[in-house]
Amino acid sequence: MSATTTLKEQVLTTLKREQANAVVMYLNYKKYHWLTYGPLFRDLHLLFEEQGSEVFAMIDELAERSLMLDGQPVADPADYLKVATVTPSSGQLTVKQMIEEAIANHELIITEMHQDAEIATEAGDIGTADLYTRLVQTHQKHRWFLKEFLAKGDGLVS
User: Where would I find the Ferritin/DPS domain in this sequence (predicted)?
Assistant: First the structure.
């Protein structure tokens, strides 16, 4: 961010990015939910649906936080991919690749939201800093659940 960008503008930029990330991540989760297979189908099908639903709820929280700060959320579908740092899932993936991709996306967002919370704190915006702290906890929980599938899948995840 440029030196002339105000702290409030920086906070609004982070909110737009994380809202766009949540949209892309939600769509990735829908893909995983629909295309999972194998001996853990039911468990993963339900987990991907649950985690996707929690990410979906984040979209509205982040958009409304932007509005509370007199900003504008990302509202044009074409803009989501321009703003997001999470990459849309593409191609046919194995179940293991789906899980690894989701873990990597959670790790990216956790790192970004830690930085975003620092920017919000520096701007004196404890509401946004608190929102990021809460969302980080959810992303950490999602990452943990997914890592457990890889660690304790007894060879069932491939």
Answer: 15-153
